User: Fold this.
Amino acid sequence: MKQNYEQILSQKEYLKLTGANFINRLGDSIDMIAFTWLIYDLTGSASWSAIMFGVNMMPNVLIQPLAGAIVEKMEKKRILILTDVARGFLTACIAILFVRGLLKPWMLLAITFLNNTLEAFHSPASTSFIPSILDKQYYDFGISFAQSSYRICELIGTGVGGILIASAGIFGAIICDAISFILSALLIFCIHVKEESISSVK
Assistant:
């Protein structure tokens, strides 16, 4: 096991992707906490918070199985960058609307749904991207290592989200969330890989 970890750590492009996904997962966990707190702040209703939780989960359940088939026919690196940048932009829009007093509950639900729809495309693209940047003999261990570490990041992100809200407020937490997606996109942009893009079904 130690040897496997040492070998994985020698794969620089894989480490860039893993680092980007760590940041991305932290952002996911932060926005789940921050947005649920924010919609309660806007409405004062626990029912709206429950709706927000459902909207967070819905795209992963309904869209991700279809998204996996779609991204197989596309350039993975481009998908990862575009979805991260789009999520960063949408999250920044929430922060701007909130600080200007223009944010409505339906807006937050709509942007949350869009964000998680983008994530439904990001996750399978990230997994499919690994064979393009990781030596074949490390592939199985690389997938396993990535999935287990993502779960750890989600747990850490949940705690970080609460700390950010307590220390920086909802606005600060959401801005940190937006920045995390942009940082993830920048790391992925720096990955060097030769990947064939399939633009149409033959």
Notes: The helical segments are 2-9, 12-43, 46-62, 64-71, 76-99, 105-133, 139-189. Residues 195-202 have pLDDT under 50 and may be disordered.
